[in-house]
Design a protein that fits this description.
The protein has helices at 3-21, 52-69, 92-96, and strands spanning 25-34, 37-45, 76-81, 102-111, 114-124, 128-133, 136-141, 145-150. It is α+β, with helices and mostly antiparallel strands. The strands form two sheets. It has a five-stranded antiparallel beta sheet.
Length: 154
């Protein structure tokens, strides 16, 4: 397990009871370096949408727990927010909750001259993701996919 994965896993374990106590669920946790700075991002969600107050309450409690545990030696910025409308589908639980919804798929390399596809998420397994694009069913190897997210339809 990489250092990043360890920090994310431990943070998610701290975040889970805090989220539950605040009436939200944990969507994802990521630890990233952007430029010279590290960011620890916690994404929370609830069916009716996350408010600023939800983020503030969770952030304060999580910050206190992270200070108590002190397992990240680097200086970092803690951010707590909603995953947003066009949320990235990184984990199997994200995909499972999005079956039947419209998604956008971006590939690392072109397939049939295209890198971007959009359609209804039909199914997935450990190796592949299947969408229905119009009348055509398309299957992508997970290793081909750079990004898959919910489509934002305005």
């Amino acid at each position: 397990m990489s250092r990043r994965e360890e920090y994310e896993e431990r943070t998610e374990a701290l975040l889970a009871p805090i989220a539950q106590a605040n009436g939200v669920s944990v969507y994802d946790v990521e630890y990233v370096k952007e430029g010279a700075d590290y960011y620890l991002r916690a994404y929370i969600d609830k069916p009716e949408g996350v408010s600023i107050l939800d983020c503030e309450n969770v952030s304060r409690s999580l910050s206190d727990e992270l200070d108590r545990e002190d397992f990240i030696p680097d200086a970092y910025v803690l951010e707590v927010s909603s995953p947003g409308l066009g949320r990235t589908l990184k984990k199997d639980r994200h995909l499972r909750n999005s079956i039947g919804r419209e998604v956008e798929v971006k590939l690392f390399k072109p397939l049939e001259g295209r890198r971007e596809f959009a359609g209804r998420l039909e199914s997935f397994d450990a190796d592949s993701i299947v969408i229905l694009e119009g009348e055509a069913q398309r299957s992508f190897q997970r290793s081909q996919i750079a990004l898959i997210r919910l489509a934002m339809d305005f």
